[in-house]
Design brief:
Layout (H helix, E strand, L loop, with lengths): L1 H29 L8 H29 L9 E4 H18 L3 E6 L3 E4 L1 H17 L6 E9 L2 E7 L25 H4 L5 H11 L3 E7 L3 E9 L2 H4 L2
Helix pairs in contact: 1-2, 2-6, 3-4, 4-6
Amino acid sequence: EQLRREFTANVSHELKTPLHTIAGYAEMLASGMVQSDDVPKFSAQILSDAKRMTALVEDILRLSHLDEGAPGQERRQGIDLYALCERAVASLAEAARQRGIAISLTGSRQRVDGAEKLLAEIIFNLCDNAIKYNQENGHVAVSVTREGDRVVLTVQDMGIGIPPGETDRVFERFYRVDKSHSKEIGGTGLGLSIVKHAAAYHDAKIQLDSQLGRGTRVRVLFPLSQKEAQP
């Protein structure tokens, strides 16, 4: 009950902020108080906050499905984890470039059994966080390797790190390491919660190591694909 109340309060807070901005700018536009030269700026801010709300609602719905044990209609199949990483790195290349951050992918093609969309969300959210919480001109290193009977996805950054004693909390909903700059950093605060649930669906283990001011490394250890595991 306490967790439900906290979640409801956090959702309300996260939605109120962009809603107030949208309502304020829309009211000024509707009343004719905005000079014509400023209309594009005001419209862009409304669009930005509307997209922020849409992303939040989508993540909440995604978490709800994961909580109910319903990850979607996708069937489990052998997935090339390295290929999914290539796709994620390519999609985030522009966001990394804008911050002067280099993002690299190493390792080899390894297959795991799972739902492609969920696996893609794990990779994207980890890489997205590594970019957002990195230092300027930093580096994000992504790798896919095999360790015994496990396929290991590793995402390492050179960012702000996590305070000692708080590493377990980063997977809580709406938890942020740097709350004072959450708006500038962006995101919904739910990405790592989705990672946690999606990893559990795949019987994967998450390992997190972090040093304050020096960066964070997240490893997700997946069971080897049954086809690959056969002698």
